Amino acid sequence: MTSLDIWLNILGLALIAFAVRYYPMALLERFRLPPLVRQGLRYVPAATLAGLVFPALLTHNGRWAGLAHPELWAGLVAALVAWRFKNALLTIGVGLLALWLLRSVGL
C-alpha cells in the first residue's frame, strides 16, 4: 500500500464519518419534533455516558467485580468531586489519582 493509498483511505473514511453525522442532523432540522420527543432526546447523552461508564466500574472480565474493585471506589470519589465542584478536569484528575492510590495500596 503506497502513501497515496493510505491518505486516500483516511480522506474517504473522514468523509464517510462526516456524512453519517451531518446528514441526519441536516434532515431533522427541517422537521419540528414533538415536545415529548425533544424532551426524551435530552436524556440521550446521560444515558450513553452511563452505559459506557457503569460496566467499567461494576464489572471485571464480564462478571460482577464486588466491593474490592478499585475502579468502583475511584468512580465514587470522582462522582462526588463532579457533584461538588462541577469541574470536568478536576473530576478526571481526582478520579485518576484515586484509582492510582487505590491500586498502589493493593485494593
Automatic annotation (TrEMBL):
InterPro entries membership: Brnchd-chn_aa_trnsp_AzlD
Transmembrane spans: 6-28, 40-60, 72-102
Entry keyword Transmembrane: yes
Pfam families (alphabetical): AzlD
Keyword terms of this UniProt record: Membrane, Transmembrane, Transmembrane helix
Superkingdom of the organism of origin: Bacteria
Name the record gives this protein: Branched-chain amino acid transport
Taxonomic lineage of the native organism: Bacteria, Thermotogati, Deinococcota, Deinococci, Thermales
